[in-house]
Amino acid sequence: MDTKDIQNLIDFIAQSGLDEVSIETNELKLNVKRYGQTPVSSAQPVAQPVAQQPAPAAPQAVSTPAPAPAPKAETANYLTIKSPMIGTFYRSAGPDAESFVEIGDEVKPGKTVCIIEAMKLFNEIESEVAGRIVKVLVENATPVEYDQPLFLVEPI
């Protein structure tokens, strides 16, 4: 793992909201901990003495105004498919593949609706509800948080 890979991992963790991550391989032991808003990391080869060096602070996110909340009456009758984990959301199995679901598609419990990649593992996310997809709430290839709403489903 080179310095660029470590920095990319720190940036991903900074965006994901995790407070602590530890990774250990035969070549490297990496601990990343967030104290307040500034992540601190230590990385050292396994066979060498421990030397902690703080990584450069991840860039602070620019504060943007939150979008106006949707009227509750409009979404009150919809079910929500939520993310069961932190990772990167993908609507299809590959860049050239069709999306698992589109707006207007019917879903049943057990139907794959998306993939969430976490630590190089691609996890198929299945619907737990039956209905028709009315809105996709997340852009393709963007980070998602645990329990973040992904799709709105109109019950049938």
From TrEMBL:
Name of the molecule in the record: Biotin carboxyl carrier protein of acetyl-CoA carboxylase
Stored CDD domains: biotinyl_domain
Organism (species): Larkinella humicola
GO cellular component term of the entry, any: acetyl-CoA carboxylase complex
Limits of the Lipoyl-binding domain: 78-154
Any one GO molecular-function label of the UniProt entry: acetyl-CoA carboxylase activity
Keyword Lipid metabolism tagged: yes
Domain of life: Bacteria
Pfam (any one): Biotin_lipoyl
Described purpose of this protein according to its UniProt entry: This protein is a component of the acetyl coenzyme A carboxylase complex; first, biotin carboxylase catalyzes the carboxylation of the carrier protein and then the transcarboxylase transfers the carboxyl group to form malonyl-CoA.
Bias type Low complexity, positions: 43-65
Record keyword Ion transport present: no
